[in-house]
Description:
With 141 residues, the protein is an all-alpha fold. It is built from 6 helices and no strands.
Amino acid sequence: MSFNPIILPLLAMVFLTFAVWIFLFALRIPEIKLKNIDPDDLKDREEAHKLLTVSAAASNNLKNLFEMPVLFYLAAMLAMLLLIQDALLVQLAWGFVILRAIHSIVHCSYNRVMHRFIVYFVSCLFLLLIWLRLAQYLFMN
């Protein structure tokens, strides 16, 4: 089996997701202790959001990492399954991952909505280009 370079941005996306998950709990557990919140009070997601204001942005970002990135994972897996080793596809994949990392940094830090939105929007364009490139490859070969 040969090495497909698209595995590297795929792994980077997985590690980004785990990094945000770790960051979330690094914020959330101390927040629960500091505010003396009974874990049973967190059963309802909406109620938890009201109580856990410090970690809310990281929580929202983690949820975001299971929205559009699902299409990225599918595209990367399809490229690997079909043995597509296309330099443009890999560059687009890295662009998507880098933009999602910037999105996570903005979301988990100063959380300026327009900055976050612009990076999100451009990352979605990269994802669309990935899928267009895959479609082009599939229909041309």
